[in-house]
């Protein structure tokens, strides 16, 4: 392979921003459509559970995509697989734009999300190719902080587009963003994989993933990341319906309140990046996970006390996402650092667990919804506690194999 960035000691800031942008495509393509979920339900005359499939199945597609793109990038390189994934995202966005039934919309969303998974996997793998373990955590924190801006604005943007042009317009915007990013990365992204890992078939890929699972510390960090993600995606999947049915606010207003949530996450990322060297990964993860649990408990308390204003829900959840913003980049970096020669596969498996569990949680939220906010908050609290427990379990058994 030519032009290996891994022989250098850093990535340029413009390239980090581009990687952040492609990382944001998957989350943004989901969140830009969130204000439309009640509208999709009424437009196609379907139940909330069916409308929710446009979100939950897209999460599942991202989960599958992470398993595919990780090993493929370990064999064929980061650059060609990144460009392939972006091309698939464009095709899926066009399919959604042309969809005239709920079935075709779900299929298009699945294709779109599958391609969007490439950024979630390869941005982290590229960073790990270039940097050592400690520096990778700092750069991933920077990358995550930058990439959260686009998803932060996506629901508000989606609400305006939907109000003015209908919900199909969000797919046109997504396709155009993908085309621009694809064009820039075609010129700016060099190959960073120094030594290809031979791909020996699906069976070998499965065995590779099993070998990752044999590390207790990898499992601890990976499931910590997973349940932190469940907290976030559970909330965003249910919040639009709660805004309309519980808080009695218009669905398009959700996008503006939503900005508070990733703002908390982004602030947590800044803290993670700033204190990474002085406090270390594990101490930051512990602090962040504790703050996450505290924020959700506060949200529950305010609801029990009768505070029904949107800010009484969104501000405590923003505190929880502040803690998650500290936890997530450090746990992601630590999981990948366990297997630096299999960074693509380790990142892919972590991403799969994140999105697979989040997809199940997003659909489960629709099933247990009872017209109140309590089922959602209890699910989020359970996931937040689980993230802390898995991290402590992995740390307590560091270096011990599962068998």
Structure, explained:
- This protein has 403 residues and is mainly alpha-helical.
- The protein has a single domain (10-396), classed as MFS general substrate transporter like domains (Growth Hormone, Chain: A, Up-down Bundle).
- It is built from 16 helices and no strands.
- Helix 4 packs antiparallel against helix 8 (169-188) and helix 6 (133-147) packs antiparallel against helix 12.
- Major β-sheet, in short? none
Shape: globular
Strand content: under 5%
Mean pLDDT: 83
**Uncertain spans:** 1-6
Measure the end-to-end span.
38 Å
Radius of gyration: 20 Å
Number of helices: 16
- CATH topology, which one? Growth Hormone, Chain: A
**In CATH's first tier, which class applies?**
Mainly Alpha
Count of spatially separate domains: 1
CATH hierarchy: architecture: Up-down Bundle
Order of helices and strands: HHHHHHHHHHHHHHHH
* CATH homologous superfamily identity: MFS general substrate transporter like domains
Structural class: mainly alpha
Instruction: Report the helical percentage.
Output: over 70%
């Amino acid at each position: 392979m030519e032009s290996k960035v891994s022989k250098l000691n850093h990535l340029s800031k413009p390239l980090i921003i581009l990687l952040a942008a492609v990382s944001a495509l998957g989350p943004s393509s989901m969140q830009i459509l969130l204000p439309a979920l009640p509208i999709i339900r009424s437009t196609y005359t379907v139940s909330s559970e069916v409308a929710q499939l446009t979100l939950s199945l897209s999460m599942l597609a991202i989960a599958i995509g992470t398993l595919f793109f990780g090993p493929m990038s370990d064999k064929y390189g980061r650059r060609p697989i990144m460009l392939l994934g972006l091309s698939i995202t464009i095709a899926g966005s066009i399919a959604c734009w042309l969809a005239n039934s709920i079935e075709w919309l779900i299929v298009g969303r699945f294709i779109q999300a599958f391609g969007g998974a490439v950024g979630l996997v390869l941005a982290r793998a590229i960073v790990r190719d270039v940097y050592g373990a400690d520096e990778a955590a700092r750069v991933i924190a920077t990358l995550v902080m930058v990439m959260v801006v686009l998803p932060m604005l996506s629901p508000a943007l989606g609400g305006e587009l939907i109000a003015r042009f209908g919900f199909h317009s969000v797919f046109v915007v997504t396709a155009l963003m993908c085309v621009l990013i694809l064009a820039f990365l075609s010129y700016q992204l060099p190959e960073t994989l120094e030594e290809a890992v031979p791909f020996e078939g699906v069976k070998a890929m499965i065995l590779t993933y099993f070998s990752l699972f044999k590390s207790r510390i990898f499992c601890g960090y990976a499931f910590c990341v997973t349940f932190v993600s469940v907290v976030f995606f559970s909330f965003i999947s249910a919040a639009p319906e709660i805004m309309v049915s519980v808080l009695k606010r218009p669905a398009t207003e959700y996008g503006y309140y939503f900005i508070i949530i990733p703002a908390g996450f982004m602030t947590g990322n800044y803290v993670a990046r700033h204190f990474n060297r002085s406090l270390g990964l594990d101490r930051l993860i512990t602090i962040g996970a504790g703050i996450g649990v505290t924020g959700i408990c506060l949200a529950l308390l305010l609801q029990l006390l009768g505070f029904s204003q949107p800010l009484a829900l969104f501000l405590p959840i923003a505190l929880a996402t502040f803690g998650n913003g500290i936890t997530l980049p450090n746990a992601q970096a630590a999981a990948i650092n366990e297997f630096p020669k299999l960074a693509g596969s380790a990142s892919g498996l972590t991403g799969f667990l994140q999105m697979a569990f989040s997809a199940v949680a997003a659909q489960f939220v629709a099933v247990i919804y009872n017209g109140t906010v309590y089922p959602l908050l209890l699910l989020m609290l359970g996931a937040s506690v689980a993230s802390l427990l898995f991290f402590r379990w992995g740390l307590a058994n560091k270096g011990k194999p599962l068998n």
